[in-house]
Amino acid sequence: MEKHKIDFHKIIWYFTIFSVIGLMIETIFCYITTGVLESRKGLLIGPFCPVYGVGAALLIVLLNNYKKEYLKLFIIGAIVGNVIEYMLSYILEAYYGTRFWDYSFIDWNLNGRVCIKYSIFWGILAVVLIRWIQPKVDNVIKKINEKVDKYITIFFIVNSILTVFAITNYQNRIEAMFYNEEKNNVNDIAQKMFPNEMMIKIFPNLRYVDNEGKEYYIKELVNYFNK
């Protein structure tokens, strides 16, 4: 087996590059399957879909030494991809109280977080990623000065904090509208910086769960209360 060193420099740029590529894939796939062109972003600033960045980085770290073993790449890739997707879905829902994706309408799903259809997709992605895409990305990363690493890391930390801040206040505003009450934790600054119209455009598939466990698309609630 070939062994290649993977350090922080590579990992941070795998995350960055594949977050962008992932967003492009999500956007195109969504348009082809639904005819809808909408934002599939996972962060407030920039063209990033972090689930792909995290997934690709972990797949490369775990599968980097199996470049010529297609079956292993496919099987392990499918398993790892599912674990990543399930864990991220659970963590995001636990934190935000809402789901960023839901496969409940697809056959052979597990709690709506993962499904067989996308397991196959993860397996194929792992093979393509390790065999053909990673070497080309490595050539690009070699040309990036390592001094830039700290700046891109700081950018993602700040971006993540802003995203959490914006989404949390967005949900608090919707909850206040839903129950027709004043909410002390609704931040006026956040409302001005990240108004509902902007949040709908960036995160069109965010959902709100009421006290009875019923789920609503936040964009539909906003449109309803703005009538």
State the strand order across the main sheet.
1-2
By DSSP (H or I, 4+ residues per run), the number of helices equals 8
What is the overall silhouette? Answer: globular
- Helicity range: 55-70%
Distance between the termini: 63 Å
Unreliable stretches: none
Q: What structural category characterises the helix and strand content?
A: mainly alpha
Order of helices and strands: HHHEEHHHHEEH
Which labels suit this protein?
two-stranded antiparallel ribbon, 8 helices, 4 strands, 64% helix
In short:
The protein is mainly alpha-helical.
Structural features, described:
64% of the residues lie in helices and 4% in strands. It is mainly α and 227 residues long. The protein has 2 domains: 8-145, no CATH class; 148-225. The protein has a two-stranded antiparallel ribbon with strand order 1-2. Strands 3-4 form a two-stranded antiparallel ribbon. The longest helix has 30 residues, at 149-178. The termini are far apart. The model has no long low-confidence stretch (mean pLDDT 87).
Blueprint (SSEs and pairs):
Blueprint: H1 8-34, H2 50-63, H3 70-96, E1 109-110, E2 114-115, H4 116-142, H5 149-178, H6 188-193, H7 196-202, E3 207-209, E4 215-217, H8 218-225
Antiparallel strand pairs: 1-2, 3-4
